[in-house]
Design goal:
The structure holds 2 protein chains of 2 kinds. By secondary structure, chain A is of the alpha+beta class. Chain A contains 3 helices and 3 strands. Helices cover 38% and strands 26% of the residues of chain A. In chain B, a hairpin with a 6-residue loop joins strand 8 and strand 9.
C-alpha cells in the first residue's frame, strides 16, 4: 500500500526524492502519513483538496480489496 | 540557427505548419508559444495562435563537440596523477546522456506508464492500454479482468485516476491537454444509464409536481442529463451547489 502511494505521488511532484511515507498502525486502523517537500505540498493537495481527494479515493479502493482495516492518508508538515 | 514564426488557428496547427515549411520533425526543433489561440464566441474575440520554431539539431552538435574537445585537456592530468581513467569516463557519459533523454520522453507515453504503474500497485497485472489523441483530448482505453476495481463506485476511482493522469500529462506536455480514461466501455454504459435515469426522474417531477433533486455528479455527467432532457418541454433542469457537490434539479413547468 505504501508503494501504491509512492507510485501515485512521485510523478506529481518536483522533488520525488523527498517523498516520505510513515505508517501508524493500531488494532483497528492504519494511517499513512505523507511527507513531501514544502513546495510540493500544494501539488499533492490541489485546489479545494481535489488532488488529495483523488489520491485518497484510489488508495481507499485498493485498501478495501486488500484488507479489512480502516485506512487513512494524511498529508503532514515536517 | 534557423528560426521562423508561424501563425495558425491553434498552437498545434501552427507548429505543424512551421514543421512543413522547415521540413523537420517535431523532435528536431524547439517550440516557443508566443500566443495561445482562442476560439472566441461567434467569431468575436477569436485570436490566432503564434509559435516560434527554432531548429535545434545543429546547436546540439556544437555543444557536444565542445564538451568532447575539452575532455582530454581536463582528463589528462587526472589520469597521470590518479590513474582513474575508467571512472572519469563514466562520469562524462552520464553528464551527456540525461540531456538527450529528456527530449525524447513523450508526455503521452509517460502518462501511460503512470496509469500502468498505479494499476499494478493496486494489484492489477493484466492491464492493457490503448490511446488515441484528438486535438487536446487524449483518450486512454483500459482493459483488465479486474475492471470493477479500476472503476469503483459510480466511477469514482476511474475519475480520480483520470484527474491524476491529467496532472502528470500536463506536467511534461507543452500545451494543455485533457485526459479521458475509459475501462471496457464504462463511459458509454454510464451514459445510457444516466439517460434512462434522466427520463425516469423527469417523469417523476411531472407526476408529483415537486422538484426532483439528483445526487452530486461531476460536470460531464450532469451535462449528459441536461442534454438528454433538452427536448422535453414539460420540465426544466438546472444545477445547484458548489463543486464537487454540485447537483442537478428537475422541475415541472406545468402550472
Amino acid at each position: 500500500m505504501q508503494q501504491l502511494i509512492e507510485t501515485i505521488v512521485k510523478p506529481l511532484v518536483d522533488y520525488p526524492e523527498e517523498v516520505r511515507i510513515e505508517t501508524d498502525e493500531n488494532a483497528n486502523r492504519i494511517v499513512y502519513k505523507l511527507f513531501v517537500h514544502p513546495e510540493d505540498r500544494g501539488k499533492v493537495i490541489g485546489k479545494q483538496g481535489r488532488v488529495a481527494k483523488a489520491i485518497r479515493t484510489i488508495v481507499y479502493s485498493a485498501a478495501s480489496s486488500h484488507r479489512k482495516k480502516k485506512t487513512y492518508v494524511d498529508i503532514l508538515d515536517d | 540557427m534557423k528560426q521562423i514564426t508561424q501563425i495558425g488557428a491553434t498552437v498545434q496547427e501552427a507548429i505543424s505548419l512551421a514543421l512543413q515549411q522547415l521540413g523537420k520533425t517535431r523532435e528536431q526543433v524547439d517550440v516557443e508559444v508566443l500566443q495561445e489561440g482562442k476560439k472566441g464566441f461567434l467569431g468575436f474575440g477569436a485570436r490566432l495562435a503564434e509559435v516560434r520554431v527554432t531548429i535545434k539539431e545543429e546547436v546540439n552538435h556544437v555543444a557536444v563537440e565542445e564538451v568532447q574537445v575539452q575532455e582530454p585537456l581536463v582528463e589528462a592530468p587526472v589520469v597521470e596523477v590518479f590513474g582513474e581513467q575508467v571512472q572519469t569516463d563514466d562520469v562524462n557519459e552520464e553528464l551527456i546522456q540525461p540531456a538527450e533523454e529528456e527530449q525524447n520522453i513523450d508526455p503521452i507515453q509517460e502518462a501511460k506508464a503512470y496509469i500502468e504503474s498505479v494499476a499494478q500497485s493496486m494489484g492489477i497485472n493484466d492491464l492493457h492500454i490503448e490511446h488515441e489523441t484528438e486535438g487536446k483530448y487524449t483518450t486512454f482505453n483500459l482493459e483488465s479482468e479486474k475492471a470493477a476495481l479500476l472503476i469503483g463506485k459510480r466511477g469514482q476511482t476511474l475519475n480520480a485516476l483520470q484527474q491524476l493522469t491529467q496532472l502528470v500529462l500536463n506536467k511534461s506536455a507543452k500545451t494543455f491537454m485533457l485526459v479521458k480514461l475509459d475501462v471496457e466501455d464504462y463511459r458509454e454504459r454510464r451514459r445510457t444509464a444516466l439517460e434512462q435515469l434522466a427520463e425516469r426522474m423527469a417523469d417523476k417531477a411531472v407526476r408529483t409536481g415537486k422538484q426532483v433533486v439528483l445526487e452530486p455528479m461531476p460536470s460531464y455527467e450532469r451535462k449528459i442529463i441536461h442534454h438528454a432532457l433538452t427536448n422535453r418541454l414539460d420540465i426544466e433542469t438546472y444545477s445547484e451547489g458548489v463543486e464537487p457537490n454540485r447537483y442537478l434539479v428537475i422541475v415541472s413547468t406545468n402550472n
